[in-house]
Each structure stands twice: as structure tokens, then as C-alpha cells.
Amino acid sequence: MTKIINAKRINQITTFLNSLNIKSKRFSEIVRNQNISIIQDFNQAFIHSSEDKILNYEKLEFFGDAVLRLAASNFIEKKYPQMNVGERSELRAQIVSDEWLTKLGKNIDIEKLIIKGPKALGDENSKNTIIGEATEALIGALYKCFNSIQEVNLWLDDIWEEDSKIFLKAPYKFKSKTVLQEWCQSKAFDLPVYKIIEVSKKNGDPERFSCDIFIKGIKESSAFGKSHKQAETNAARVLIEKLIATDKI
């Protein structure tokens, strides 16, 4: 069963696909000719399960997860052939993360295509998650066009090249808790203690949670975040930067 879409929706989707600037003649031809079966696949990539429990993006998202990892592995192999397996895994984890997908989804303004049901429409907490999931489904739909990752890499390689440079320049900014834990272990210290306090009840407040980090019983850094995880990550990053500045790491 396919979902019937009207001419206005078809034009909305093709305009969006054109905006991705994927340098592929065969993909451009599909978009220009408005190939209806393929447009149907892309439309499904933008439907949340709160709108339709059967025809939604979940299967394409599941598929897109594997495609994304393969395309990222392909990019790393071409761009950084000298990297060992551990370094490749670390870099790939950053450029296929949920946070990265959400950032990409916001950059391409995918939210304007997403169709949600009434329950999800007013849920600000799930907004970023849905953007990331739909972006992953979009990648799955793009692969399905040709059963090939070629177009995925043509689209994402330039983006990954810039994001990889940022990560490789200062990897601690993206894995600060891990770096801090490893530093403590290298000094034979107990693991850092994170103490979280909720200072606001407002969803989305960037200072909703406060985190203090204690090492050997002494408070070493503090930071805010809109979630427990973000507050901890921010506080760890502050401490790592402090250790770097004082040549302790």
C-alpha cells in the first residue's frame, strides 16, 4: 500500500531534494522528472509514526542507519587511509552520531517536510530526535533510489570533510567524559564524580541542569546543560580545557 500524495506535496519534496545539491546526473533526472514511485519513498521518509502507524519513516530509518555507517566508512577509507581501525571507529562514531544527524537535519531544514500527528506536534522534547530520525530515513530513501551508496557519498562527503577536520583538531571536545576518565586512570585517581542539580523546570532551557565535577573530593569544574548528559559533557569539557591550559594533560 502506498500513500497518495498530491501535486503540491510532490513539488514540495522535489524542491527540497533539489536544495540538497547532490551532484549526480541520474539523481537530478529522477527529481526533474518527478518519478512518482521514488517521490513516494521520500515522502514516507518524512512521515512520523504519530501520523501513520503503518506508513512512516521507521523502516527507512532502520535501513538508513546501516547505509550511513557504510557511507561514512567509505569516506574515511578514501580521505584518511592511514588511520588505524581504532581511529576510524572513533571518527565514524562522531560523524554518524544522533547529534550529527540532528545538526544535518536542521541545516537542510528537513523539519518543514515532516508530517506529525497531534501528539507529536506539541512535544518539544522529541523535536530534535524526530529531526535526526527523519534525516536518517532520508539517507535510507536516497540509497533505495539506486541500491547504491554513491549518491549518499556525493551528498555527505563534503560535509564530513569539514566536520572531520573540526573533530580531529580537538577530539576532546566531542568525547570529553572519556578523555577525563582516561586522564584520571592514568593518574591512579578514582573516577570523576558528577553531581547534577536541576535548576529549572523549563523544557529546552540551556541552563536547566547544573553539573559539578569532583576529583579526589575537590570540585574542579561546573557547567550547565539542557539535559543531564549535556551538563556532564560541558563540565567535563571545561575541566579538560583547564587541564590543557595548565599543561596537566
Explain the overall architecture:
The protein has 249 residues and is mainly alpha-helical. It folds into 2 domains: 7-168, Orthogonal Bundle (Ribonuclease iii, N-terminal Endonuclease Domain, Chain A); 176-245, Double Stranded RNA Binding Domain (2-Layer Sandwich). Helices cover 59% and strands 8% of the residues. The protein has 11 helices and 3 strands. The chain has helices spanning 7-19, 25-32, 36-44, 58-79, 85-95, 98-107, 118-121, 127-146, 150-169, 176-186, 228-245; strands at residues 193-198, 209-215, 218-225. The chain has a 3-stranded antiparallel beta sheet, covered by helices on one side.
For this entry, give a set of tags.
single chain, mainly alpha, Ribonuclease iii, N-terminal Endonuclease Domain, Chain A, Double Stranded RNA Binding Domain, three-stranded antiparallel β-sheet, 11 helices, globular
What is the strand and helix layout of this fold?
Elements: H1 7-19, H2 25-32, H3 36-44, H4 58-79, H5 85-95, H6 98-107, H7 118-121, H8 127-146, H9 150-169, H10 176-186, E1 193-198, E2 209-215, E3 218-225, H11 228-245
Antiparallel strand pairs: 1-2, 2-3
Helix pairs in contact: 1-3, 3-8, 4-5, 4-8, 4-9, 6-8, 10-11
